[in-house]
Specification:
- The chain is an alpha/beta fold.
- It has a domain of 149 residues: FAD/NAD(P)-binding domain, CATH 3.50.50.60.
- It is built from 16 helices and 22 strands.
- Strands 1, 2, 10, 11, 12, 13, 14 and 22 form an 8-stranded mixed β-sheet that branches.
- Helix 1 runs parallel beside helix 10 and helix 5 runs antiparallel to helix 6.
């Protein structure tokens, strides 16, 4: 058993933890990063599967993600635009496929009118929401007490309009059924991206990718830390108090003055805290849960959909695969499609055998792109729900009433323990950008506390 002493111990080697560690080292503090997995990156994972490079985890960069863009620039990483030339496709409730351009799906005129009105109404509501303090928004308590599904039902009787609006929050972002989260939680999701219109605009929210994969961010950050990063070291016990912390992990014990918990809140209960965390935290963490989505990768010898004048962008709240995109890698002659099967649909396909699930998903893709979609040369499913150290995707969100009730305590330190991950972010919520922001915030708080102690000692 290795036993070391550092100024700060960081639990979790994702983007948040590694950002915090690097910022702390820049400030002159010593760190140790403990990671349960055999790799760094957390929910960022770029791997080669059957000869194809796949982004198993997060991958996109949007123009509002300042913290991520700054980090990419600082690390010298290049980006490229997602392929988007040509028509998108939409499948309606009756199974009819329509090609279209623009942001609004090709629905009947009366439904389009309702969709536009709902987007405008949501944009106006989102404009009043500070993503870092959504619980302070007008009518926050009431909005947190009503599900997004019920709110939509109160706005319109048009089922197709409701399904399409819900798709952008429920299926595409929170990856939970719209009855399972509040309207305030939906507004936070939109506010974190700047507006509801941004979530509707795939060309904005899914703008660019990183040449070589987004996992390079944590890989390069970890490289700078060298031996301060310890893999295969899940923390089992964290002792904490006024005199500091002791993290007991597999193979290593770290004594430190402060700690950063840089992992998803659904994993906090994997650690035994001595003494136990305060009641408020215990309750709060029980009201946060992960969504569930399968990210499907299908690689073909060529991007055949482009020959049909298609961009690869496809949507339908009525399809098993509710959205899909051209995900071909930079400089690769092969074509890659990425599709998403979310929440209840994801539950359903895991009742099937792997072969049946693959056939069902590829059948859904073929409804968008034609029969060639059924025959990829590489097929892979990113199933984060089965990952021991993740347990869902993309991130955690509150149940009804939880955001208003517990939001003010979400990022509050407990003694010498700071919390940092994308699940806790306001701006950049659920994204790598938010993880970086939270890592910076945790480091700033620790450095500020150190300066205060030094000033007191010198007084």
């Amino acid at each position: 058993m290795t036993e070391i002493t550092r100024d700060v111990v960081i639990i979790g080697a994702g983007a948040a933890g590694l950002t915090a560690a690097n910022e702390l080292k820049k400030a002159g503090l010593s760190v140790a990063v403990l990671e349960a997995r055999d790799r760094v990156g957390g929910r960022l994972w770029t791997d080669v599967i059957d000869g194809a490079m796949l982004e198993i985890g997060g991958q996109w960069v949007s123009p509002d993600q300042d913290a991520l863009i700054e980090t990419l620039d600082e690390l010298g990483l290049e980006t490229y635009e997602r392929y988007r030339e040509g028509d998108s496709v939409y499948i309606g409730e009756d199974g009819t496929l329509t090609r279209f351009t623009g942001e609004i799906f090709p629905v009947k005129p009366e439904t389009e009118k309702v969709i536009v009105e709902l987007i405008e109404k949501l944009d106006a509501m989102v404009a009043l929401v500070d993503p870092d303090r959504p619980w302070e928004s007008p009518d926050a308590e009431a909005l947190d007490a009503i599900s997004f599904e019920e709110w939509l039902r109160q706005q319109t009787d048009d089922t197709e309009a409701r399904e399409n609006i819900a798709l952008f929050i429920a299926g595409a972002m929170l990856t939970k059924p719209a009855h399972a989260f509040s309207t305030l939680q939906a507004l936070l999701m939109a506010a974190s991206a700047g507006s509801f219109s941004h979530l509707v605009d795939a060309d904005f929210i899914l703008d660019k990718r990183v040449v070589g994969g987004l996992q390079q961010v944590p890989l390069l950050l970890a490289e700078r830390l060298g031996d301060d990063v310890h893999l295969n070291a899940p923390v089992r016990t964290l002792h904490w108090g006024d005199d500091g912390v002791t993290a007991e992990a597999d193979g290593i014990t770290v004594h430190a003055r402060q700690a950063v918990l840089a992992l998803a809140p659904v994993l906090y209960n994997r650690i035994s805290f001595v003494p136990a965390l305060p009641r408020r935290q215990h309750q709060m963490h029980q009201h946060l849960s992960m969504g569930f989505v399968i990210k499907v990768h299908a690689v073909y010898e060529r991007p055949f959909w482009r020959e049909q004048g298609l961009s690869g962008t496809a949507f339908s709240p009525f399809e098993l695969t509710h959205e899909a995109y051209d995900n071909s890698n930079h400089g690769d002659e092969r074509g890659t499609l990425v599709g998403f099967v979310s929440d209840k649909n994801a539950d359903g396909v895991f009742d099937l055998s792997p072969q049946e699930r693959k056939e069902r998903i590829l059948e859904s893709l073929s409804h968008y792109y034609g029969p060639e979609a059924k025959d990829p040369v590489v097929y892979y499913e990113s199933d984060w729900g089965s990952e021991e150290w993740t347990r869902g995707a993309y991130a955690a969100s509150f149940d009804l009433g939880g955001l208003h009730r517990y939001g003010p305590d979400l990022r509050a330190a407990v003694g010498p323990i700071q919390f940092a991950c994308s699940d806790l972010a306001g701006a950049g919520y659920q994204h790598v950008d938010g993880a970086i922001r939270m890592g910076r915030l945790a480091a700033e708080r620790i450095v500020a506390a150190d300066r205060t102690l030094l000033e007191v000692a010198q007084a």
